[in-house]
Design a protein that fits this description.
By secondary structure, this protein is α/β, with parallel strands linked by helices. It has helices at about 20-30, 55-65, 85-95, 110-125, 140-145, 160-170, 190-200, 205-210, 245-250, 265-275, 280-290, 290-300, 300-310, 330-340; strands at about 5-10, 40, 75-80, 100-105, 130-135, 150-160, 175-180, 225-230, 235-240, 255-260. The protein has one domain (about 5-340): Aldolase class I (TIM Barrel, Alpha-Beta Barrel). It has 14 helices and ten strands.
Length: about 350
């Protein structure tokens, strides 16, 4: 699976009483599917996935899969305290047609060896390819060891710096894999393959048979997707901040899951698109527009991101208790910084 471009960290919509609001999640995923974002991440790190029950996890995966456009890469975030729990979540994601899992370290403090065992044991038996999620708590040496695993594709680097990216790239340089892509080098998702496989062969009625009685013509199915192979290395995605996004793109990262992508996916994609179009100066100019809002979202956390979603036509709503909603002054600050990012 090719993991690149802008990935949207999906928020978890709730009613005012804290119950999950599935229709609003469906609405959000449908709208994100109309944006240029390459992927959608359900229950992302730093969100409210850890506040969901197992039944809500399953429902979340079902709603996202059903509402997402088939060309969007679907990634399921996993934060579980045990290997058994993580493998259960990965199996549920596989059953709902997701393409990969994003595996975070358990919230319980683990030693470096225990953390390595956790990631490796999940990768050994996961029903889906694994992307790691983490920052400095995962040493580069440990990342290099995990990169040798055939089921580990890459890492979403939290608060990634260019220095750490270069260290990861150097340590995983030998990691090579062949992935399937479209003719324009976009990812080929599992749901794209399922839809093509489910089409029946074309059936036509001969001209001779039409002369002797009633005949039924069946329209031909859509043409099968054309694919090609691409060699990719250990795939690194920026997770969280947008502060040094362009510098990291210049260094070689494949894309980003920025916190701002939940409320301003178009603005985040414009930075990536400008860089890919060979205009790093324009990319820096567009990235500068994100800095103030990005810093405020970091300060206010998930409540700030959700309110910014409300301002841009995505349903954010209130966070689930014990997380608190914004104060009136905090809402005004969000409104001010998001005024230029509503397009």
């Amino acid at each position: 699976m090719l993991i690149d471009g802008i990935h949207v960290p999906l928020t978890a919509p709730f009613y005012r009483d804290g119950a999950s609001y599935w229709r609003k999640l469906e609405h959000n995923v449908g709208r994100y599917s109309l944006t240029p974002a390459a992927g959608l991440v359900a229950m992302p790190p730093g969100g409210e996935g850890g506040l969901l029950s197992d039944a809500e996890v399953v429902e979340t995966l079902q709603v996202v899969s059903a509402a997402a456009a088939r060309e969007k890469v679907l990634v399921a975030g996993i934060v579980k305290e045990s290997v058994r729990g993580a493998l259960w979540a990965a199996e549920q994601a596989a059953q709902e047609g997701f393409d990969a899992v994003l595996l975070s370290a358990p919230e319980t403090k683990l030693s470096a060896d225990e953390l390595g065992v956790y990631f490796a044991a999940v990768a050994d038996s996961s029903a889906l390819p694994v992307m790691l999620s983490g920052g400095n708590e995962i040493p580069v040496e440990r990342i290099a060891e995990l990169a040798a695993h055939t089921n580990v594709m890459g890492i979403y680097g939290r608060e990634l710096t260019t220095e750490r990216y270069h260290a990861i790239a150097a340590a995983t340089r030998e990691k090579q894999r062949e992935v399937e892509v479209t003719t324009v080098f976009a990812p080929v998702t599992g749901r794209m393959k399922v839809q093509v496989a489910s089409e029946r062969p074309a059936t036509f009625v001969s001209a001779e048979s039409l002369g002797g009685g009633a005949g039924l013509a069946v329209a031909p199915p859509k043409a099968a997707i054309k694919t090609r192979k691409k060699i990719t290395g250990f795939q690194t995605i920026v997770e969280g901040k947008a502060e040094n996004f362009v510098e990291l793109l210049e260094a070689g990262v494949a894309g980003a899951m920025l916190r701002l992508a939940a409320c301003a996916p178009q603005a985040c994609h414009e930075v990536y698109a400008a860089f890919k179009d060979g205009n790093p100066e324009l990319a820096r100019e567009k990235a500068a527009r994100l800095r103030e809002a990005d810093a405020l979202m970091l300060e206010l956390g998930i409540a700030g991101v959700k309110y910014a979603c409300d301002l841009n036509g995505y349903y954010g709503g209130l966070p689930r208790l014990p997380k608190l909603a914004l104060t009136g002054e905090e809402r005004r600050r969000v409104e001010l910084v998001m005024a230029s990012l509503r397009a």
